[in-house]
Design a protein that fits this description.
By secondary structure, this protein is α/β, with parallel strands linked by helices. The chain has six helices and nine strands; from the N terminus they run H-H-E-H-E-H-E-E-H-E-E-E-H-E-E. Helix 3 links the parallel strand 1 and strand 2. The longest helix has 21 residues.
């Protein structure tokens, strides 16, 4: 089967910028108290649901969120489309398993996971393909499992061309929280919390954090 062009472009983009991206964002979480708080909340939720449950960060990049989640006591596995990003993640966080893979075909059994994190990783998927992504999240989550999403808020994509002088470009799609909430609900993952904060530092748009949970039968 031929791979969709947007996946090929996304992989090539992040393979090309992996080293510079990793250096730029290495300590970014230290300056983001809201992000740290949301990660801690998610860690509490999945540990409370099932202390020995597994979680996946989908689109983990160099592991800048996967590593902290592991530090919070979460059994987390990082998945990324970019082999170079996975290579850097393994180097930075040797205690965490990382795999090359796509959010359209996650390497987990039905209902295997207690948590899924997609931290600014659904933003490269065309709108018409997002229902497939949410269906895959729902497939791998066990009843009671939690999904956490982070993304930029807006209607118009940001087209990033030749970052760090590399000969690549990519669309960064901004999304409306109410639309993402609808996608999650239609996939069987009703949203339990929606938070939007104003831009900080070099950010150009508000940032959104959504939590959703797969219902427990009879719950």
């Amino acid at each position: 089967m031929t791979e969709p062009g947007f996946l090929t472009e996304t992989r090539a983009f992040y393979d090309a910028v992996a080293t510079e991206y990793t250096d730029l964002f290495r300590d970014a979480l230290d300056r983001m108290p809201m992000d740290r708080a949301m990660l801690a909340l998610f860690a509490d939720l999945v540990r409370a649901e099932r202390p020995d449950g597994r979680t996946a960060e989908v689109g983990c990049g160099p592991g800048r969120m996967t590593g902290p989640l592991h530090g919070l006591g979460v059994d987390v596995h990082g998945i990324d489309l970019s082999p170079r990003m996975v290579e850097l993640a393994r180097k930075a966080h040797p205690e965490v398993p990382f795999s090359v893979g796509s959010m359209f075909d996650l390497p987990f059994r039905d209902g295997e996971l207690t948590g899924v994190v997609a931290w600014y990783s659904i933003i490269h998927t065309p709108a018409e393909r997002l229902p497939e992504v949410f269906a895959e999240f729902a497939r791998v989550l066990a009843p009671g499992g939690h999904l956490m999403l982070a993304f930029q808020v807006g209607d118009r994509p940001l087209y990033l061309e030749r970052p760090f002088g590399q000969p690549v470009s990519l669309d960064f799609r901004r999304l409306r929280p109410e639309h993402v909430e609808e996608l999650a609900r239609e996939a069987g993952l009703p949203v339990t919390s929606r938070t939007v904060r104003e831009p900080e530092g070099d950010e150009r748009t508000p940032q959104a954090y959504l939590l959703a949970r797969k219902p427990v039968a009879g719950g």
